[in-house]
Amino acid sequence: MLLGVLVTAWSRLADVLLVRPLTPAAGDPGQFTSIDGVRTYYRATGHGPALVLVHGLGLSHLTWAAATDALAEHFTVYTLDLPGFGYSDKPAGYASARQAAAFVDRFLEALGVERATVIGHSMGGAVAMWLAAEHPTRIERVVLVNPTEIGDAAAVFRLVARPFLGELLLKTTTPATMRLLLADPYVHKEVVTPELARQYARFAWTPGARQAMIEHARSYDADRAALRPRLALIALPVLIIWTEADPYFPISVAYELVGLLPSARLEIIDGAGHLPHEEQPTSFTRIVLDWLLTPATPPGSRR
């Protein structure tokens, strides 16, 4: 009884005590632009054809830090915080991967990028598939990194989507609890540094951040049901990167996805969990660059 009273009191006080706007640190290389009135944070680095990196649920542009420099030797690399995440605004109305894909299309249009290759991780992989399905003239090739909306939603999605429990889980976020939560999908736990955990905890307490997480989690099943029948219509070359130690989506989901896409190649990275671009950035960028810098492989090719 007492615990319930304390939890309820904390739920009411947390928004007042902890929620606050967040601005990048002085000297941060990123910048803001306005897309449909949404203040959107992004960073552009390198030279060459456009390459857009799209992060997963609850993450931000930070997830690509270890891979960006190698990719930027050959491409102009754009990393952005989707609406609801990172430094970007967190308004209602961008509550699914499909809606996020339409936003990325408008983001590229605003920057004058006519065509781009897109790399999407986890939820960002679903965003990339929606881009290829509904905005194919904008996209040249697609790299999917352990994407969602193919297999059943992972337990963490289900928990965040549950009424009251999801909100309560996110309202207990501290740097310490965030480090524990972030460490779950990694094989190499040391990747989640105290500073990284602190930064994501700060993101979690920006206005609208928790609601964005909840709404995306709740949209999973409907988005998945709508996306799967459209995959057979994606004619673009697709590289799928998966890991054998992903605790959320087993390797069987990767083989299922290969069968759903007309022109897909599968590469598997060992010794990594759900985020191979953070845990194995050298292997990750080698695979990506080998594929992007050579002619497209025949349909159905896989490792």
Key structural traits:
single chain; 303 residues; alpha/beta; Rossmann fold; 13 helices; globular; disordered C terminus
Written account of the structure:
This protein has 303 residues and is an alpha/beta fold. The chain has a single domain (34-292), classed as Alpha/Beta hydrolase fold, catalytic domain (Rossmann fold, 3-Layer(aba) Sandwich), CATH 3.40.50. Helix content is 43%, strand content 16%. It is built from 13 helices and 8 strands. The chain has helices at 2-18, 65-72, 97-110, 123-134, 155-161, 165-171, 175-183, 194-204, 209-218, 220-227, 251-260, 276-279, 281-292; strands spanning 31-35, 38-45, 50-54, 76-80, 116-121, 139-145, 238-243, 264-269. It has an 8-stranded mixed sheet with strand order 1-2-4-3-5-6-7-8, with helices on both faces. A hairpin with a 2-residue loop joins strand 1 and strand 2. It is globular. 45% of the residues are buried.
End-to-end CA span? 56 Å
CATH superfamily: Alpha/Beta hydrolase fold, catalytic domain
Question: Strand order of the main beta sheet, please?
Answer: 1-2-4-3-5-6-7-8
Number of strands: 8
Which H/E pattern describes the elements? HEEEHEHEHEHHHHHHEHEHH
- The helix-and-strand class reads alpha/beta
| Helix count, DSSP H or I runs of 4 or more residues | 13
What fraction, in percent, of the residue positions are helical? 40-55%
What is the level 1 CATH name?
Answer: Alpha Beta
Just name the CATH architecture.
Answer: 3-Layer(aba) Sandwich
Largest sheet: 8 strands, mixed
CATH topology: Rossmann fold
Indicate how many domains the architecture comprises: 1
Low-confidence stretches: 298-303
The gross shape turns out to be: globular
